[in-house]
Design a protein that fits this description.
The protein is an alpha/beta fold and about 450 residues long. The protein is built from ten helices and 19 strands. The strands form two sheets. Strands 3, 4, 5, 6, 7, 13, 14, 15, 16 and 17 form a ten-stranded mixed sheet that branches. It binds flavin-adenine dinucleotide (FAD). Flavin-adenine dinucleotide binds next to helix 2, strand 13, strand 17 and helix 10.
Length: about 450
Amino acid sequence: MTPNRSPWLAELNRIRETSPLAQSESADVVIVGGGIAGAVTAYFILKDTEHSVMILEADKVAHGATGHNAGQITSYFERPFESIVQEFGLDMAVAGQRDVELAWDLIQDIQTSAKLETPLHRFTGFAGCTMLDQFLVYLQENTRRIEGGLQPEALYIADDTPWKKDIPEKYSTMYAVVTKEEIQAMLDTRNDDYCAVVASPKGCMNSARFTEEVIGYLHATYPKRFVLHEETVVEEVTLYEDSAHIQAGTHVVQAKRVVLATNGFEQFHITNTVGVDIDSTFHHLVTGRIGYMAAYIEDTPEPPTAISYLPKRDTPSGDPTGEAYFYLTRRPHQTHATEKALVCVGGPDQPLPNLAIYSRADTCRDDIKDDIDEFLKETYAPYPTDHKGYEFCWHGLMGYTPGGLRRIGVEPCNTVLLYNLGCNGVGILPSVYGGKRIADILSGKEVSPSIFDPLDQRKRT
Ligand SMILES: Cc1cc2nc3c(=O)[nH]c(=O)nc-3n(C[C@H](O)[C@H](O)[C@H](O)COP(=O)(O)OP(=O)(O)OC[C@H]3O[C@@H](n4cnc5c(N)ncnc54)[C@H](O)[C@@H]3O)c2cc1C
């Protein structure tokens, strides 16, 4: 039985006592959820407006997905970019991609302004393809990126790739032909299946430590306008015309606006006293998947990297980005004052059955750890032959919205309620961008329609 133990929470140096809600209180804006989405939303609201902000967190800050992820900073969507173009049009799809990429700068600005110490490693990361249909998705995406004025990604293919001749001529200027050895070097692999690579800006960061530091900064900078109550489970949100009551245990918090930054796994009800029912639609909006990860410590520290490996399948798929894949990050890791590397691998996930309650206290799945081990042996060249086991194994919950895009913005059925939720596998950059967008909305700025706008349920029926 392997306990759920993440390296990110192990690195926290937390001395703050929890302060659960102990009486009825009020704030201009209540944020439900104290992950990176809730903390960054609070940061920008406090910075850009005069509002007071209260975060209510069921557990402790950053102990949700933020403390159980792969910590890879990447800007892709877990659905083909082309399908976003088809749904929203090129301009909105490109604007959405730009917004997510903008979050790199937002993180950097927060780090600088708040003098945070959480290391942020930035580098070129890679995705390895084994099949033509996988590579075609990236070629198509690059075409759209160029059409929309975005920086194209660098694409490489090995000169001996059997399916190279099947790549349509129209893409011929979009990739470089290199040797198999060069492909394998980028992917840190000796596995011959991998014959093409996509290179793009990536990074890694302990998002739990970042979130904790942001909270510390908010406490120090806005002592009169910022309050955090941990170990406070929100059970009911009642929406009125221009206010909300948030029920947690026997206490009620009154607010002018409520932001749900709950990832999607809310064990609470929403009552809209002025308009159509939001509760039932909201609760069915987001489905859960449990993601599993394992990490070991590498004695010889290789430089930081982030690599996704898209494996070979029997038949091509219409949507290779929706297929199972493994992702690996490697970053400096301090043990006993010696610099080593932490190698984290994830990929396997399981749906959370409808109405089931996810428990962070559940142990990890040993069969999944074996799958990760198998993958590393077959694929990752620096994997040590005398591998001594995994220092960390962990799981976390991911909220998937029906369209695979984060929900950021105002609830159309009652504008007192706002969302910054739905991790959809890759959620660090979108949640940071989401925090800024929510603050822009609350400060009265005009925001353009976006691919992240919450759907108007009334238009769906
Ligand atoms: C295994 C795994 C790997 C991942 N890998 C990556 C990656 O490499 N890169 C990437 O960009 N993203 C990744 N993600 C996603 C990313 O971690 C999240 O999208 C990101 O941390 C945003 O988190 P959040 O703040 O929205 O949600 P969370 O961190 O889950 O925070 C939501 C908070 O809301 C609280 N809450 C919920 N309900 C209530 C309630 N009723 N009352 C009070 N509080 C409540 C929860 O306790 C929780 O702390 C991964 C996620 C997982 C699980």
